[in-house]
């Protein structure tokens, strides 16, 4: 987003009609003033749209952050309930039968993660990045 000054004061020519001004002079003055106002209106509209997009983006980020905070709180409550309700030796992961595991979550490739022996520290990081 480009930085634009907020709430610019109108920069209209302040030409006062003189006593001897003709209708044609007044018509030109009004036409020039109309053109200046239309140009300023276009600039303000562009600034408004830019600010509106920025605000919508920030509101979307805040909504997602609030949702993630709520989900994190629920997760902590569930973990506390599980830890309080079971002794430490009973906190073993439950194996699901393979037919109940959806295909997209089944391990692929020639090796299982539990069987993986990294040759270097870089190999370990490559699993996560």
Automatic annotation (TrEMBL):
This is Uncharacterized protein. It comes from Fusarium duplospermum.
């Amino acid at each position: 987003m480009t930085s634009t000054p907020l709430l610019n004061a109108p920069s209209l020519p302040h030409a006062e009609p003189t006593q001897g001004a003709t209708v044609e002079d007044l018509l030109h003055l009004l036409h020039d003033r109309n053109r200046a106002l239309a140009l300023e209106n276009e600039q303000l509209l562009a600034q408004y749209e830019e600010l509106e997009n920025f605000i919508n983006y920030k509101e979307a980020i805040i909504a997602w952050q609030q949702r993630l905070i709520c989900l994190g709180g629920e997760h902590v409550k569930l973990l506390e309930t599980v830890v309080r309700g079971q002794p430490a030796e009973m906190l073993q992961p439950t194996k699901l039968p393979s037919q109940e595991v959806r295909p997209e979550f089944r391990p692929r490739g020639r090796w299982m993660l539990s069987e993986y022996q990294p040759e270097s520290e870089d190999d370990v990081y490559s699993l996560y990045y």
